[in-house]
Amino acid sequence: MLPAYMIGMVLAGTVGEDHVLIRRLRTLTFGFLTPFYFVRAGSFVSVPALIGAPLVFVVLFFAKMVSKIIGLLPTVNAFRYERNQGLYYTLMMSTGLTFGTISALFGLNHGIIDQAQYSYLGATVIGSAVIPTMIANSFFMPKHLLKRGGDVEPAIAITEASGTADQGEQWNLSSPD
């Protein structure tokens, strides 16, 4: 993965200017490659190991969340957000899902950790992404930044004559009319 990140950093300036290419790469990555990676990474998790020692998961989860909150909350507060907004951004940024699973899978593949340890780490990484996101969206969502119910933009804009999404009459394909 490190060479992929390095190549991405080198090509960022050149590729970043071509918006069509970026959209296609994003579609390919999120729609095709990412699910294969997470299915493979998840297939090594041992459910019996997790059930056998749930306290290990709890300790690792809270250690990770406390360290992330201690590192992120002061930084977010430096931007003087309201209390709920600051907590929302802190919880949403404290996931580490990709790097956590990559490093755990690296350790498993190279014999640094065994399958039980990988299971604890994998469950902790996934839990630290899902649980804070659910808490943030349930309790700390900055509702004043959301659009009101009647201010919905069209989902897809189609030009009547040419069939492109550039200019012209827009059809709201999300409405039942």
Word description of this protein:
The protein is mostly helical and 177 residues long. The chain folds into 2 domains: 44-145, no CATH class; 149-177, no CATH class. Helices cover 67% and strands 0% of the residues. The chain has 7 helices and no strands. The chain is globular and about 45 Å long. 12% of the residues are buried. Mean pLDDT is 78; it is low at 154-177.
Q: Using the alpha-carbon principal axes, give the shape.
A: globular
User: Number of helix segments?
Assistant: 7
How much helix is in the residues?
Answer: 55-70%
Oligomer: single chain
How large is the share of residues in beta strands?
under 5%
What is Rg? 21 Å
Main beta sheet: none
Query: Helix and strand succession?
Result: HHHHHHH
The counted number of beta strands is 0
